[in-house]
Design brief:
This protein folds into 5 domains: about 5-260, BirA Bifunctional Protein, domain 2 (2-Layer Sandwich); about 500-595, Elongation Factor Tu (Ef-tu), domain 3 (Beta Barrel); about 605-755, Threonyl-trna Synthetase, Chain A, domain 2 (Threonyl-tRNA Synthetase, Chain A, domain 2); about 770-800; about 805-905, DHHA2 domain (Diaminopimelate Epimerase, Chain A, domain 1, Roll). It has 26 helices and 32 strands. A 9-stranded mixed beta sheet has the order 1-2-6-7-8-9-5-4-3. Strand 29 (about 845-850) and strand 30 (about 855-860) form a beta hairpin. It is globular. The protein starts with 10 loop residues before the first helix and ends with a helix.
Amino acid sequence: MADRSSEYRTQFFLDNGFMRKKCAVCGEFFWTLDPDRETCGDVECEKEYGFIRNTFPSENWDIHNTISRWIEFFRKRGHSVLDYYPVVARWRDDIYFTIASIALFQPWVTNGIVDPPANPLVVAQPCVRFGGEFSDIDNIGKTGRHLSTFTMGGQHAFLGKNWKGGYWKNRYLELNFEFITKIMKVPPEKLTYKEDWWQGGGNAGPSIETFAYGLEIVNGVFMQYKLSNGRLEPIPIRVLDVGWGLERIAWFMQGTPTIYEATFGPVFNWMIKNLGVEIDAKLMLTYGKYVGAVTTDTEEIFNATRTRLASQLGLSLDDFNRIFGPIESIYAILDHVKTVVMAIPDGGIPANIGGAYNLRTILRRAISLAEGFNFDIDWEELIHRIIDYFSKTFHRVKSVRDIAPDIWMLETKKFRETLEKAIRELRRTIKKKKIRVIDDKILKNFYLNYGMPPEQIESIVRKMGLDVIVKISPSFYDEIKNVAPKPVEEGQKMEEHVLPDEIIQQLQPTKPLYYDDPYMAQFQAKILYAINKYVILDQTAFYPMGGGQLSDHGVIQIGNERYNVVNVFKIRDVIIHELDRPLNNAKKGIKIMGQIDWNRRISLMRHHTATHIINGAAQRVLGPHVWQMGAEKKPEKAHLDISHYKNLSYDEIRKIEDLANRIVLENRPVILKFMARTEAEKKYGVRIYQGGAVPASILRIVEIKDWDVEACGGTHLTQTILTGPIKIIGTKKIHDGVVRIEFVAGSEAIKLIGERDKYLRDACDVLRVQPESLPKVVERFFVEWKRQKDEITKLWKFIANNLEKLVADKVVIKNNIKFLLTRIDVDIRLLFGPIRKLQSYADNILIVGTVLGEHRFIGIGDAGFIKNIKDAVSELSGEARFSGNIVFGSLNAPADNLIVKIKKLYQIP
């Protein structure tokens, strides 16, 4: 390995008397003021935490005060303070959750594409991780320090492009040392600065981890190189990426046994008291000192470190698990509930695909842990307490106080339903395969197919008293997250490259005239390139497919030749027009006349503008957890997919529709403008990324005054009144956590309303009533119909129960085979039982019937007879289905035709 010691030999260390040493345990280098220190400070080398104590500091260092002190320290030293971003990273297309504060600025600021929002800056950013060194789900609750949601104190400075305010290693270390020794009052000689190296995403740089009493408090990464052919090359933009563990600081200052008491404070105390869990304070302090050495790297290491911890406490492993199992489960439950609650305001709804699958994983794990220890948890109260406590700092979480318990309870119900199936399958699997050890392979199968966490299986096996060992790998959840189902992309896909890349690269960007004037229907342009039926112009008013909006159609005229434009798409900055036939003699520089299909364009503009209006209405009716998850705009209709946890009620649909039409009638301006990415985020926040990540430094912002603001590249109207009426035509849940709203606007809405009015009038004419009387008349008819249906059903059942008496004399014999071929107009579903009894009268039986205009059949007999029925049904354009040796189904011809065919086949008169 190359000698990188010069990367860490900073002026700060040299001026302040720090010594560089090599850790006697791990062999890594570190810097210290203590000449006698031999270890680097990491708990795995120290073997215990030295800050755990039974006395509390005189100052309040709960998580809220910790964050406030940290922010104020940096604010007073020239740092701008940013409000925290969502935990669901809508502005990124490569990650689902915000995993670190630097994710807020990648790749745009870190690559120098846009200016930083401030320099230097700090942000107390809640982050969500379901894997990695600090947040493996398997570790949570068992190591005293792991969390799935944590607050990263992001301290960032940027150097390059003549940006002012940035700083580098020495200033970082000065601030680091000052905060820890002056604010946290840690003796300087107790600090260690451990050398490390970071690389990822093609970049690399040194990092310095700061430890005190075994705890890593902060890690500073200096992004200053790029990897090129295995070599390090300096990059023009240097980034200081510092992550302070703010929950760790709160824990360090409070000296509690684990990070969970310090983080959850009064909520943890309420849980312990409410569940009646007894805690031996002295034993917990000892546990807290040594639990940090527990690691789940492998099953063997986990078991070894766990056994050592039990020994340090003077306990057998069984006694250790009995005493600390309930407490560790409470730690994990608190963490998991908080993570789900923090994600909901940002549209993170537990589901069965993508990142939302991780939310469902920990939600179900929390339920399983609670049931495994028979905890009677009032989930609604727990959720409310977590929201009330953490909303003191994270203000957005307050907005989901009402819906978060609903989401949790709905997910619990789903879990229960799948659990019943899973338990039956578990019993069958154990019995059939004579299993004695349930390993990871079986556990993964049950988790992925039934959503059953391994802890739940362990609890069920224990309660069933089965002689089976459940072997849960310490890395189970870390492995599961890598096989979570991925979301299925819907809608029309972007065209494949129809032109070679080298040609696209040589062409100048196409000027989009539709941004200059969305109402432009005609334009002139010059041909830049043409091949076969594809043509590229220097400018165009044809909108290419994108952002869920279909492309424009129309006509391109070259001289006396007219070509229909059937598709338009974009490759990078070049817009390509697909024509209905190849071009004749089209050369570069030839002028053309373009004509947009205006009826199609205006319908698309109405539907796109209506999408923004409905999105704003859905957020106000359903809650701030609603984010756009997808959309498609066609000329005839459109749909908007939103993050929501259940199907919409009729009342909710009406409220959304009424609110949307109110915005239309208010004739609010639709403001269309281009803004620098950083400026747009500063002014409007990251809700502008409703449609997902936008890969551009300059964003096109579409703002409906005081209603909705999005980064969007589609064509829109300039006033909401021009949208015309909006009519929601249906809603459905396309998968867990996402609801689709289908709608029409403008002339399409008027057309739909007219059609529905005609249906209403036709119904009134049939019943000879006025529209206002229709509901009562229909209700009366329905009641009478239901009464008559019940009477008919009773008659059908009577016929079915007396079937033998009714048909016994209709048996015919042909070639020593008894046939019963008859017609009985009853619901065929009632004959599955009786037809088996008829086999004592006949070998082959076929019964047909017509009920409410539907022709159906049911048959039973030998294999040849069943095949003949199936073939005859196929000839009659019917459908045959099977249940054991019974064939049944429907016909698209008179029912008697089937009997005629079978009689003819067997020559039965």
